[in-house]
Write a structure and sequence with these properties.
Elements: H1 10-24, H2 30-52, H3 56-61, H4 66-98
Helix pairs in contact: 2-4
Length: 103
């Protein structure tokens, strides 16, 4: 006795396959992806060179995989942004208290 068919026709089978593929894959613009990949590799290479010369920031950012380096770089940039915001807010508060205001 044979196996029970899951799909009544080849058309149904192909439609189900396309539906599964659409749900599990994404469309990528190849040229943009290639540019991002090259930029990421260049970032990794430059940070590695600085790391080997003893740059403390590069030591902090360098990862064995380009994605690790990218994640560390993004985290560092966000930290710098937050520190700048905090400093800016503190300066505004100091300026306000100098002229008799409150924070």
């Amino acid at each position: 006795m044979g196996r029970i068919r899951q799909y009544a026709s080849a058309t149904e089978r192909k439609a189900a396959y396309r539906s599964r593929m659409k749900a599990t894959t994404i469309s990528v613009e190849r040229e943009a992806f290639t540019r991002i990949d090259r930029a990421l590799i260049a970032l990794q290479d430059n940070i590695w060179r600085a790391h080997t010369r003893g740059n403390p920031l590069a030591r902090e950012l360098y990862g064995t995989k380009p994605v690790d380096t990218l994640e560390a770089t993004v985290a560092w940039i966000l930290q710098q942004i937050n520190e700048t915001r905090r400093t800016s807010a503190e300066e505004k508060c100091q300026d306000a208290t100098k002229i008799g205001g409150t924070c």
